[in-house]
From TrEMBL, chain A:
Family (UniProt): Belongs to the ABC-4 integral membrane protein family. LolC/E subfamily.
UniProt entry tagged with the keyword Signal: no
Subcellular location: Cell membrane
Pfam family, one: MacB_PCD
Limits of the MacB-like periplasmic core domain: 19-221
Protein's UniProt keywords contain Transmembrane: yes
UniProt keywords, alphabetically: Cell membrane, Membrane, Transmembrane, Transmembrane helix
Name recorded for this polypeptide: ABC transporter permease
Transmembrane stretches, start-end: 281-305, 326-350, 370-390, 419-437, 457-478, 515-535, 762-782, 803-827, 847-869
Source superkingdom: Bacteria
Main localization, broad class: membrane
UniProtKB/TrEMBL annotation, chain B:
PANTHER family in alphabetical order: ABC TRANSPORTER RELATED, IMPORT ATP-BINDING PROTEIN
Region annotation (Disordered) ranges: 216-250
The organism of origin for this protein: Streptomyces endocoffeicus
Keywords: ATP-binding, Nucleotide-binding, Transport
Record protein name field: ABC transporter ATP-binding protein
GO molecular function, one term: ATP binding
Location of the ABC transporter domain: 14-244
Statement: the UniProt record of this protein carries the keyword ATP-binding: yes
Protein's UniProt keywords contain Transferase: no
Compositional bias (Low complexity): 223-250
InterPro entries: AAA+_ATPase, ABC_transporter-like_ATP-bd, ABC_transporter-like_CS, ABC_transpr_LolD-like, MacB-like_ATP-bd, P-loop_NTPase
Automatic annotation (TrEMBL), chain C:
Name of the protein in its database record: ATP-binding cassette domain-containing protein
Family: Belongs to the ABC transporter superfamily.
Pfam family, one: ABC_tran
InterPro entries: AAA+_ATPase, ABC_transporter-like_ATP-bd, ABC_transporter-like_CS, ABC_transpr_LolD-like, P-loop_NTPase
Keywords, comma-separated and alphabetical: ATP-binding, Nucleotide-binding
UniProt GO molecular function: ATP binding
SMART domains: AAA (SM00382)
Stretches assigned to the ABC transporter domain: 17-232
Superkingdom in the source lineage: Bacteria
Length: 886, 250, 232
């Protein structure tokens, strides 16, 4: 019986089955594609986090423990690739005599590096100048002491006389924060900044040089064991974090208190798992509405056959089929639709993956992709059951066949409208949004070092309820407008229908139920496209801002420390093809109190011609107003919020910085006026720094030396221009371009290839918008084919039919577009607010991708017009069978 | 065949010459109407009688211009243009009202389609509804009507158009006897009031009895009877079935 | 008209259908309409009974109650000696499948199945698998050549006969027909009535609800239903 039924359906109702299957396939494909993508992104995040760490673990040998035995234990721990002991000792200060003057620093740190350290941990030390082996000195120390390779430095030793070493090279310690961490201390008692003065000695020399210190105080010289790990980690950052911290604790236990593990790897994964959670949230936010929409579309398609299905079921029951048998038939139908749609969807997903990522599994492992695909397939079956089976069973629950056979009566007001769920939902949405976006809110809470992470899922409620509430409100409004606005409607459709306007309006008004449903579906599809696209392009915009902030400009030329290059060096650079503008940016250091901070000297009038300054970087004025303040009052100073707090500054206050004089090399006091707060600045570090007028700095320090040249290439061609600059400058300066930075910025979500997600999302949004417009209209027209056939035999011309059909299409389009744009706009605003944590820095304004929206609109319009035209064509010449039925 | 047109009192409304209609092609081709030749004139009251599947509906559709003959010719000499829906009113077997329009809008629809202004169309539709006795249903929707009421609205729709020919396809097929009789009354009165020709297809001899001429149709072949002059034909013809028909129906 | 309806006849299994004191009312808002007000009737095996009455007299409701499609508020319906009213829907369905054939005025066929498949579904409902019957059924209604036609490909008369074939697919004890000749011309009408008659001749009960006088004259017994009551 089931086979007979199904084969009949497949042979004679293939169109409708296929339409439902297509709707399901969209939902399935979306979930499968996004899920696989999510898994792939998570494993990318783990990879990046692991790669970002120069030294996996720093095992601090505890006082009293034997370094050699701890080293042995660590080396034999599973997952250890290399483990090398590093000596740490404190110096009372370094001194150097160059160019006739003597420079001294405060207390410093001396490190002892074993042979092979730099090749085992290549990320820890970056060579700037000089030799790679021998005595190395940190860049800032070199700057403080005015030393270069070949110069001699005196190391002050507590409990012994000074030691003299000859500098072989200058290096940078990119991960100084973790290198000089206080192992085992909680985050709040970590040093606020790494030591400024660092000398790295070869192990043998270190042992000799620190022997007197050790003799005086054995605890003053310590050993850390630096570990590179090669254990296989789970692809998910959260799981990888758990695995790594577990291994760290295990190792600590093995050393029996002899060593404390500073888990840099764990710390990196800790922040990665937070990003992974954000990625998951994005997936939920952006993927779920699409899947819901596809499911709604499916339900609409399936619902179009509801009357027929009800009649058939009644007939089957009349023939004596029991409840279970009729349900069996419905199950067959929904399973067929679900399986076909599901497989089709997985095919689409695999195809999309191949097109967007070159692999059907989106770059994730085969197993996790298969898992997602299976889940998506299951979802397809659930949607099919909900769209086909549930209504069938609902009809069947009517006690008797006679009751089930009765056709639903005249369209009144839908019952839900009486309870105002739309307004309630919107109100709740607003309050949830208000509550969740208040000051102390953070979407993702991942306390450092704690394995549990939490997402404030409450925050989802705001946008979700907004979506639902505004859809229902639109439904109500359209229904009301169609019910009571017959006259205005007639006026609106008059250009399309001519003399038939009143009749057309009456007919539209009576079809308000299906029409309102169609409008809501179209609006939801469009709002999905709008919010997704706007969110994605805002995200991209912020990623670009982030990259620009880090790199400074399209291409950035960073001079070696201590270089005396002046602004005139910009001229030869500006002559290089592809360069539009070169902006010099001074980079100095300044003391405020005992605190050393970066100081950037800008030319306020021209700085924005090479880089962009967003208002969000500053407070106390817009970017433009603060720059003009710097220009009109050259001694103005922009400081960090922290400094404002520390020094209790009020606008106009004088702030005295100590800057180094070019001739005397000594620091002398220069007065500035506090003019505003700067939070971010191109090339500046994340912590505290100053921004001042470059001319004023040059005047007061006697040097116009430029630290960085910001090169504008007009937004393109960065790689080629960077290559040309490198060619011209050789090794005298470092050249970076923004494309390089873009791929390096942090381990944050920005680094995840969101463009893949974007492409998937946007493609589906277009399909859904076109589907919602076209299919729904086509179904509506098909339902009324008889109406059009009657109108035709009553003498309607093709033109009049076109008027009828296009009035409906126009009503659908106008209301759907207006509703979709409004809902989309509101949703985007809320999404961007709720997902603030995703953006770094927070966006100044939502970016609207007009070309994409235009494309979506065009697709939806094309589908609607296509459906309308085919509707007209079909009804202008009714089939013989339709005439027969009259 | 009819006598040549005298040209004064009686117009030839439909002129059908050897018109045939075939569905499908090749082996599967079904001939619905074999070459039919006849004329319909002002004042005619014709019943096309035949069992289901005899091609009555197709013939009616040809007469209404809804379908085109596959061979032969059909013309509307007195109606100007060919296939004018506004000069030929058709009452279908099922009431065929548009569900989204109320009764008066349905009745006014053909007028609106022919370009009559909506208020005027509405006025005429209301008076037509009144004439067939369903004016009180003007605001109802088709789904709220009984079969007989809906069929009367369909008749009113034709009446409002004031056509020169009224074609009715099994107008009583789905109605019980009493309601069917009433619908036939309305049709005959309407045709009389309009001075229009009335052609009804039916399988029901009691319906056929109420018309002047009964043309039997069987398996797509139409037999026309020799007409009596239209003016002198009594309204209620004696029960005299054409020979061909008698053999078929009993 | 015969009135051989005695208790004795019922007891010896000669009764195909027996309904006693059926009540059914509908509620629309505040109003309550009594569609059936104590209808009693029975159909003997080998007998054709016609129920006539004006529209709105409760004919369709009566038929639905007799077929177990609707549940009477009061009274009982027995089919072939088994009670079909006041039982769970599953049991009613089983009885319908085994003992009752229903011929509706229209819409007897599933649109996406051809004639043969429609019959097969009805047989499957009754738990029959013997496909050979289909040919005999189709032959019986004169549709041997149309087994693979879809409902919309059939002419009016053919459609009615195909519906009859489906209604008889389970070889029912009693055939309930609602206006079986409503849209048919005289010749097809005669043919359908002939088929109904042969059903009764084969020892089954036939009950026809109609306003058609031809049908009335062909029935063994005529009951007049008016305002929900059988007229004396």
């Amino acid at each position: 019986m089931i086979i007979t039924w199904l084969s009949g359906l497949v042979r004679r109702r293939s169109g409708r089955l296929l339409a439902a299957a297509l709707g399901i396939s969209l939902a399935v494909a979306l979930v499968a594609a996004l899920g696989s993508f999510l898994t792939a992104s998570k494993s990318t995040m783990t990879d990046r986090a692991v790669r970002s760490v120069a030294v996996g673990w720093q095992v601090q040998v505890q006082p009293g423990a034997k370094p050699a035995s701890v080293l042995h234990t660590v080396r034999s721990a599973p997952g250890t690739r290399t483990a090398l002991p590093v000596g740490f000792a404190h110096s009372t200060g370094f001194h150097a005599r160059t160019g006739g003057s003597t420079q001294s620093t405060g207390p410093g740190v001396v490190l002892g590096l074993p042979p092979g350290y730099r090749s085992a941990f290549p990320g820890e030390i970056r060579q700037l100048t000089g030799s790679a082996s021998g005595v190395l000195i940190a860049q800032q120390t070199a700057a403080n002491l005015h030393v270069a390779p070949g110069d001699t430095i005196t190391i002050g030793r507590p409990g012994g006389g000074p030691a003299h070493v000859k500098v072989a090279g200058v290096v940078d310690l990119p991960q100084a924060d973790s290198l000089f961490q206080k192992v085992g201390a909680p985050p709040q008692s970590q040093p606020t900044a790494p030591p400024d003065n660092v000398i790295l000695l070869p192990a043998a020399q270190f042992t000799r040089a620190t022997a007197p210190i050790k003799a005086a105080d054995p605890a003053a010289v310590t050993t850390q064991i630096h570990v590179a790990r090669d254990a296989r980690l789970p692809a998910d950052p959260a799981a990888a974090y758990t695995a790594v911290t577990g291994a760290a604790h295990n190792t600590e236990a093995r050393t029996a208190g002899g060593g404390l593990v500073g888990d840099n790897l764990g710390a990196a994964l800790d922040s990665a798992r937070q990003d992974a959670l954000y990625a998951q949230i994005l997936f939920l936010f952006l993927g779920v509405p699409g899947a819901v929409l596809a499911a709604l579309l499916t339900a609409t398609v399936a619902g179009a056959g509801a009357d027929r299905r009800r009649r058939e079921q009644a007939l089957l029951r009349t023939r004596g089929l029991g409840f279970r048998q009729v349900v069996g038939l419905a199950v067959t139908e929904s399973a067929a639709v679900g399986v076909v749609g599901g497989l089709l969807g997985i095919g689409i997903a695999a195809g999309v993956g191949r097109a967007a990522f070159g692999t059907a599994s989106f770059g994730s492992t085969g197993a996790s992709a298969a898992g997602w695909f299976a889940l998506a397939l299951l979802l397809g079956l659930v949607i099919a059951a909900a769209a086909v089976l549930v209504p069938a069973v609902r009809d069947l629950r009517q006690g008797t066949v006679a009751e089930a056979r009765r056709v639903v009566g005249r369209a009144g007001t839908p019952r839900w409208m009486k309870f105002y769920p739309d307004l309630i939902l919107l109100a709740v949405s607003y309050f949830v949004f208000r509550a969740s976006s208040s000051n102390n809110y953070s979407l993702v809470l991942a306390p450092e070092g704690v394995p549990t992470i939490s997402v404030s899922y409450w925050a989802f409620l705001g946008p979700a309820l907004l979506w639902l509430g505004s859809a229902l409100l639109l439904w109500r409004l359209v229904t009301l407008a169609l019910a009571h606005g017959r006259r205005p409607l007639a006026r609106l459709v008059r250009p399309l229908t001519g003399a038939m306007a009143g009749t057309t309006a009456a007919s539209l008004s009576r079809q308000r139920r299906p029409l309102a449903r169609a409008v809501v579906l179209l609006a939801l599809a469009l709002s999905f496209a709008v919010s997704t696209a706007a969110f994605n392009s805002t995200y991209r915009q912020q990623a670009e801002v982030d990259a620009r902030l880090t790199n400074g400009a399209d291409v950035t030329v960073t001079q070696s420390p201590g270089s005396r290059t002046g602004p005139s060096a910009a001229n030869p650079l500006a002559a290089i093809p592809g360069v539009r503008h070169v902006e010099p940016l001074q980079h100095r250091f300044a003391y405020v109190g005992a605190d050393l901070q970066d100081l950037y000297g800008v030319r306020p009038s021209t700085v924005t011609s090479a880089t962009s300054l967003q208002n969000a970087y500053f407070s106390g004025g817009s970017a433009k107003s603060l720059m003009s303040k710097l220009a009109t009052r050259p001694d103005s100073l922009l400081v960090s919020e922290e400094t404002v707090k520390d020094f209790q500054l009020a606008p106009g206050d004088t702030l005295k910085l100590r800057l180094q004089d070019a001739h005397t090399k000594s620091f002398h006091t220069v007065p500035f006026h506090y003019a505003g707060v700067v939070k971010e600045f191109p090339t500046a570090p994340r912590d505290s720094f100053f921004v001042a007028n470059a001319g004023y700095i040059a005047k007061t320090t006697g040097s116009d030396a430029v630290g960085t040249f910001l090169v504008d290439t007009g937004g393109g061609n960065q790689k080629a221009v960077a290559a040309r600059l490198r060619h011209q400058l050789g090794t005298s300066a470092k050249v970076t371009d923004i494309t390089q930075t873009r791929s390096q910025v942090g381990s944050s979500l920005t680094s995840v290839d969101l463009s893949g997600l974007t492409r998937i999302e946007l493609a589906f949004a277009v399909l859904l918008a076109a589907g919602a417009g076209g299919i729904v209209l086509a179904l509506g027209l098909a339902e009324r084919r008889r109406t059009f056939a009657i109108a035709t035999v009553l003498g309607a011309t093709r033109r009049q039919l076109r008027g009828l059909v296009f009035s409906e299409a126009a009503t659908l389009t106008a209301a759907g577009l207006a509703g979709g744009a409004l809902i989309g706009w509101a949703l985007t605003q809320m999404l961007v607010k709720v997902l603030t944590g995703v953006f770094d820095p927070p966006p100044e304004a939502v970016a609207v991708p007009w070309p994409y929206l235009a494309l979506t609109l065009a697709a939806a319009l094309a589908a609607i017009v296509g459906a309308a035209l085919s509707g007209v064509r079909r009804s202008a010449r009714p089939a013989v069978e339709e005439l027969r039925e009259l | 065949m009819k006598a040549p047109d005298t040209g004064l009192l009686v117009d030839t409304l439909i002129d059908c010459r050897d018109a045939a209609r075939t569905y499908g092609r090749g082996e599967n081709a079904v001939v619905a109407v074999h070459g039919a030749t006849f004329q319909v004139r002002t004042g005619d009251r014709i019943a096309i009688m035949g069992p289901s599947g005899s091609g009555k509906s197709t013939l009616l559709h040809l007469m209404a211009g809804l379908e085109r003959p596959t061979s032969g010719k059909i013309g509307w000499p007195a109606l100007g243009r060919p296939a004018t829906a506004h000069d030929i009113g058709v009452v279908f077997q099922s009431p065929s009202l548009i569900p989204a329009l109320d009764v008066v809008e349905n009745a006014a629809l053909p007028l609106v389609l022919s370009g009559t202004a909506e208020p005027e169309a509405r006025r005429r539709a209301l008076s037509a509804l009144d004439a067939v006795g369903v004016a009180d249903l003007a605001d109802k929707l088709p789904e709220e009507l009984s079969g007989g009421q809906a069929q009367r609205v369909a008749v009113a729709r034709v009446l409002a158009l004031r056509p020169k020919v009224v074609l009715a396809d099994e107008p009583t097929g789905q109605l019980d006897r009493a309601t069917g009789r009433h619908v036939m009354d309305v049709l005959l009165d309407t045709a009389a009031e309009l001075g229009a020709a009335l052609v009804v297809t039916t399988h029901d001899p009691t319906v056929g009895e109420r018309l002047t001429e009964r043309w039997p149709m069987h398996e797509g072949r139409l037999a026309t009877t020799a007409p009596a002059p239209a003016a002198s034909t009594p309204r209620a013809a004696p029960r005299a079935r054409p020979n061909a028909a008698q053999g078929e129906t009993s | 008209m015969t009135t051989t309806s005695t208790a004795a006849a019922r007891a010896d299994g000669a009764t195909a259908l027996d309904a006693r004191e059926l009540y059914r009312f509908f509620r629309t808002g505040e109003e309550e309409t009594l569609a059936l007000r104590g209808v009693s009737l029975h159909v003997q095996r080998g007998e054709t009974v016609a129920v006539v009455g004006p529209s709105g007299s409760g004919k369709s409701t009566l038929l639905a109650c007799l077929a177990g499609l609707d549940e009477p508020a009061g009274g009982y319906v027995h089919v072939g000696g088994e009670r079909i009213s006041h039982r769970p829907e599953a049991q009613r369905a089983r009885l319908r499948a085994r003992r009752i054939g229903v011929l509706l005025q229209s819409g007897n066929l599933i649109a996406h199945l051809d004639v043969r498949e429609n019959i097969r579904i009805a047989q499957a409902a009754a738990g029959r698998r013997d496909v050979s019957d289909i040919a005999a059924l189709l032959d019986g209604v004169g549709l041997s050549g149309r087994a693979h036609a879809l409902p919309h490909e059939l002419a009016g008369g053919e459609l009615a006969r195909a519906g009859l074939a489906v209604a008889l697919a389970n070889d029912p004890d009693v055939l309930l027909a609602d206006e079986p000749t409503g849209e048919l011309d005289g010749r097809t009408e005669q043919r359908v009535l002939g088929l109904l008659g042969s059903r009764a001749d084969a020892g089954r009960g036939v009950l026809v609800v109609t306003h058609n006088t031809e049908v009335v004259s062909f029935a063994d017994r005529v009951l007049v239903l008016r305002d929900g009551r059988i007229q004396p």
